[in-house]
């Protein structure tokens, strides 16, 4: 896939599950990425929660077929560091105008976190229609996302936060859900 032409929808459609990876040791990164790509999971979200995260992104980005993104991006400094490390998409737990302007300026696909109608409306005002529903289970789960999807039929979601292997199919059955984020795919240990 030509990653230069990626948009947020294309990233979301790479596979029904985007592994959410918290990695403490960048030396593990390449093997993790190779295993996931071999399982046809091409979009890999590495959270910026550890000191090893940027090095892990750089290692994973070298794996053929891997489309590596940075998660837990909170500000412009982290955005630029993630892009410099090789991130091809950005995921954030929330949506701010400042981060939105910086992401738009950089031209990188972005999945901002939303949890309510106001968040989605702010995203729509920024020209977005693809969102991370976060924290999915704590924000009301499937009933909440169904309710939010009704007035925002143009929006598509990647629920993340509390999704498990045995519940992913229930989320994926929703018409507004393109993919789910799952931390169960790569245990921290």
Task: Describe this entry's structure for a reader.
With 189 residues, the protein is α/β, with parallel strands linked by helices. The protein has one domain: TIM Barrel (Alpha-Beta Barrel), CATH 3.20.20.70. Helix content is 35%, strand content 19%. It contains eight helices and eight strands, in the order αβαβαβαβαβαβαβαβ. The protein has helices at residues 8-12, 29-38, 53-60, 76-85, 97-106, 117-125, 141-149, 168-172, and strands at 17-21, 43-47, 67-71, 89-92, 110-114, 130-133, 156-159, 180-182. β6, α7 (141-149) and β7 (156-159) form a beta-alpha-beta unit. The longest helix has 10 residues, at 29-38.
What is the CATH topology descriptor? Answer: TIM Barrel
Q: Provide the CATH top-level class.
A: Alpha Beta
The termini sit apart by 31 Å
Structural category is alpha/beta
Order of helices and strands: HEHEHEHEHEHEHEHE
User: How many DSSP-defined strands?
Assistant: 8
- Count of spatially separate domains: 1
Total count of helical runs of at least 4 residues: 8
């Amino acid at each position: 896939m030509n990653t230069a032409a990626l948009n947020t929808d294309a990233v979301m459609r790479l596979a029904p599950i985007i592994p959410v990876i918290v990695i403490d040791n960048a030396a593990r990164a390449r093997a993790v990425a190779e295993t996931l790509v071999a399982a046809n999971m091409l979009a890999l979200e590495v959270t910026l929660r550890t000191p090893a995260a940027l090095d892990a992104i750089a290692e994973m980005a070298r794996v053929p077929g891997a489309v590596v993104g940075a998660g837990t991006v909170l500000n412009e400094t982290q955005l630029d560091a993630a892009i410099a490390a090789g991130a091809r998409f950005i995921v954030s737990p929330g949506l701010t105008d400042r981060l939105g302007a910086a992401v738009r300026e950089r031209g990188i696909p972005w999945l901002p976190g939303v949890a309510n109608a106001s968040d989605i409306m702010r995203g729509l005002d920024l020209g977005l229609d693809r969102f991370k529903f976060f924290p999915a289970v704590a924000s009301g789960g499937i009933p909440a996302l169904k309710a939010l999807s009704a007035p925002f039929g143009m929006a598509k979601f990647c629920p993340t936060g509390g999704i498990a292997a045995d519940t992913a199919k229930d989320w994926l059955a929703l018409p507004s859900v393109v993919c789910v984020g799952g931390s169960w795919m790569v245990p921290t240990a």
